[in-house]
Amino acid sequence: MKKYLSLILALCLPALLGGCGAVPLPMPESPTPPPAADTEEITYEVSTDPYEQTVTAEDGTTLMVIDFQIPHLQAYANGALIEDPSTPAQEQAMDRVHTFNENFDQWRESNSSEENISFVKDLYRDMPEMFSEDHMAPLSEELTYTCYRTGTLISIAADYYSYLGGAHPNTVYFAWNYDLDSGMFLTISELAADPQTFTLAVADMIEVQAEEQIASTPELEGQSLSDVYWDNYRETLEKWSSDYAASFDADGLTVIFSAYELASYANGPQEFHFPYAALDSYWSDSGRAVLGLD
């Protein structure tokens, strides 16, 4: 899944024009206004930096396919890609670009597939029959993402899928929220006037929504939250902003807990969504500016 969205941040330097008052006759010629200062429009775009690799055995058998779609930020000055910044505004834009891209470079390096590749090759050497067409498809690792821009915030929601020959594949959800104004990655609670109050309030909202989801699931009829979730589920809920996948989209805030984080694999990921209106009273003034809610 590849998604591209254009991200616009205009920096304008308005010219200051002096006014003229009445003077005694003879009237002088009207002064010529000074030339307007050059304006430079800085814009940003998130594109995809693909990382693809096919792992094969010496006999040509395909063992594993790796397909990572990595978010990649670029900056433009008046529509032209900035490669060698020549103004302070361009230098600042490139600092923001580097901070964003280095984060995802580090993610790719920390999720290096070298160990998995070695594992797969050993598995093929010991049990080549497992890689027959009748037994299982090539093993795989994939990262896909969606990108949403609100205010000065870039919100990335990603899922990492892997199938390494076990009983079932696995999907882990990630989220990153990057503020173009400050050039920093933020946790969502940092946008609130009182982060602790906001964090606990959303945890309460998640708990209520989780109970509603359980009550509306026929397979879980008669069960309570404590029956379905792990014993420490409340502790997990209260870390929704810092340790789990929380991102924004056009409608509001989405929080996803991957399988195993709140409940068993059989119960799957647990996803919760809250419209902006439900969270309106919690944002700080600066948070509202980042989210474009002013």
Give a written overview of the molecule.
The chain is α+β, with helices and mostly antiparallel strands and 294 residues long. The chain is built from eight helices and eleven strands.
Please give the structural blueprint.
Elements: E1 5-8, E2 42-56, E3 62-77, E4 80-81, H1 88-110, H2 114-126, E5 139-150, E6 153-163, E7 170-179, E8 184-185, H3 195-215, H4 225-228, H5 233-237, H6 240-243, E9 245-248, E10 252-257, E11 270-275, H7 276-279, H8 285-291
Parallel strand pairs: 3-5
Antiparallel strand pairs: 1-2, 2-3, 3-4, 5-6, 6-7, 7-8, 9-10, 10-11
What would CATH call the class of the largest domain?
Alpha Beta
The major pleated sheet works out as: 8 strands, mixed
Fraction of residues in H or I helices: 25-40%
CATH superfamily of the largest domain: Fervidobacterium nodosum Rt17-B1 like
The termini sit apart by 32 Å
Which stretches are poorly predicted, pLDDT < 50 over at least 5 residues?
1-28
Number of strands: 11
Offer a few descriptive terms.
single chain; 294 residues; alpha+beta; Heat Shock Protein 90; Actin, Chain A, domain 4; 2 domains; eight-stranded mixed beta sheet; three-stranded antiparallel beta sheet; 8 helices; 11 strands; 28% helix; disordered N terminus
Q: Concise description?
A:
With 294 residues, the protein is of the alpha+beta class. It has helices spanning 88-110, 114-126, 195-215, 225-228, 233-237, 240-243, 276-279, 285-291, and strands at residues 5-8, 42-56, 62-77, 80-81, 139-150, 153-163, 170-179, 184-185, 245-248, 252-257, 270-275. The chain folds into 2 domains: 1-11 and 40-186, 2-Layer Sandwich (Heat Shock Protein 90), CATH 3.30.565; 187-294, Alpha-Beta Complex (Actin, Chain A, domain 4).
